[in-house]
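User: quick one, sequence for these tokens?
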């Protein structure tokens, strides 16, 4: 019974880890591809690829930041400003 519970916890952790990693990599890849195709269309190589990589990386990091804040027990988005009363409640 205990081994089954451990297996379930490990499976759940792996699923979450792959999901978070996939969204991070997906953000960077999508920014890069959008920049690449926009560069080819507009003839501005390589500037939009560079911008796409930077924006995709920023988006990926923000997604990981939001996820880590949710895992710490904070409610809502990490980008939400807290009132002084809410900060006192967090300890």
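Assistant:
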């Amino acid at each position: 019974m205990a081994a089954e519970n451990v297996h379930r916890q490990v499976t759940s952790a792996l699923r979450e880890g792959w999901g978070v990693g996939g969204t991070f990599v997906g953000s960077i890849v999508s920014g890069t591809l959008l920049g690449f195709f926009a560069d080819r269309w507009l003839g501005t190589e390589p500037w939009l690829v560079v911008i796409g990589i930077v924006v995709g990386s920023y988006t990926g990091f923000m997604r990981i930041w939001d996820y880590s804040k949710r895992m710490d027990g904070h409610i809502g988005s990490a980008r939400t400003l807290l009132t002084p009363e809410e900060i006192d409640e967090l300890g």
